[in-house]
Design goal:
This protein has 281 residues and is of the alpha/beta class. It has two domains: 82 residues, 2-Layer Sandwich (Alpha-Beta Plaits); 155 residues, 3-Layer(aba) Sandwich (Rossmann fold), CATH 3.40.50.150. It is built from eight helices and 14 strands. The strands form three sheets. The chain has a seven-stranded mixed beta sheet, sandwiched between helices. It has a four-stranded antiparallel beta sheet with strand order 2-3-1-4. Helix 4 packs parallel to helix 5 and helix 7 runs parallel beside helix 8. Bound molecules: S-adenosylmethionine. The site of S-adenosylmethionine has 22 residues, from helix 4, helix 5 and strand 9. Methylates ribosomal protein L11. It is found in: Cytoplasm. This is Ribosomal protein L11 methyltransferase. Its EC number is 2.1.1.-.
Length: 281
């Protein structure tokens, strides 16, 4: 278990745009986990990767007029995950249909779909806008009998829900070894071990074909770089759900998608984040 630095950044003024930008910049600097609140953001990085000069220059170049107060402390590895989970991951209900909670939670609201996630360091508890936007789409669609890909599965949350919603085959791909291991555990917790988990990147799609629903909640740059390989897996009449980017990024995504025969169907947004639905002919 690693020791972590807990970095606390209070922003004045503070709003969701600022904490989102801050989290994105800190992610590039190696931070792994982010807990935004009304006054700022708490973020975590492995102690050996922490470089205060990088934080100073990142804040100096922050793109919006903002004053920051910064403090940090060392969090020893042993209890870190447990602390984080207990303090910050509360059960969440989406569209009155789907509850996501951890195995240690008590008094869980009853819902048609009950997903257990012990996230450790992986992304995907349903609390981030991008995850919940995709979950809402999955709850609204008929997934019965579909072949599904979940690219960038993180905790496996979307692959788990797709399986619960009746998908026939679900392939889930994750590049990060830690998240992959966590997804394996979460599949077991939800009895969804039928999900075919792949450790790797877009190259894992080489043998995947005839996909009816392709989900990728990653980020704009990876999606635009890899979308041709995503499109190559699709059956006719397939749907693609893309997230992990802002509404203003839609034209960039569409300029990569349209030459591949993918057309715009609709999009939903939450806190500027976007879930884009595309379809093939
Ligand atoms: C934003 S998280 C989404 C997690 C989960 N699917 C959700 O919706 O909450 C993106 C995930 O994609 C993974 N990832 C990043 N680049 C990737 C790539 N090129 N191929 C596969 N997975 C990737 C990250 O490690 C991370 O777990």
């Amino acid at each position: 278990m690693n020791d972590y630095i807990e970095l606390r950044l209070d922003a004045t003024p503070c709003d969701e745009t600022r904490t989102d930008i801050l989290a994105a910049l800190l992610a590039q600097a190696g931070f792994e986990s982010f807990v935004p609140d009304e006054t700022g953001l708490t973020a975590y990085i492995k102690a050996e990767l922490f470089d205060h000069r990088e934080i100073d220059s990142l804040l100096a170049d922050f793109p919006m007029e903002t004053a920051f107060t910064v403090s940090r402390k060392l969090v020893e590895g042993q209890d870190w995950n447990k602390e984080w989970e207990k303090n910050y991951f509360q059960p969440i209900v989406i569209d009155d249909q789907c509850v996501i909670h951890s195995s240690f939670h008590k008094d869980i609201p009853e819902c048609r779909y009950d997903i257990v996630i012990d996230p450790k360091m992986a992304f995907g508890t349903g609390h981030h806008a991008t995850t919940s936007l995709v979950i809402r789409q999955l709850l609204a669609m008929n997934l019965q009998g579909l072949n599904v890909v979940d690219m960038g599965t993180g905790t496996g949350i979307l692959a788990i829900l797709a399986t619960m919603r009746g998908a026939r085959r679900v392939d889930a791909v994750e590049i990060d070894e830690f998240a992959f291991t966590n997804a394996v555990e979460n599949m077991r917790l939800n009895s969804t071990e039928t999900v075919e988990l792949h450790l790797g990147d877009v190259a894992e799609l080489a043998k995947v074909r005839n996909v009816n629903l392709f989900i990728a909640n990653i980020n704009r740059n990876i999606i635009t770089a890899d979308i041709a390989a995503y499109a190559a897996t699709l059956a006719s009449g397939a749907t693609m759900l893309l997230s992990g980017f802002y509404e203003e990024d839609i034209p960039v995504i569409m300029s990569a998608a349209e030459p591949l025969g993918l057309t715009y169907k609709s999009h939903t947004t939450l806190n500027r984040w976007c879930c884009l639905k595309l379809c093939t002919a």
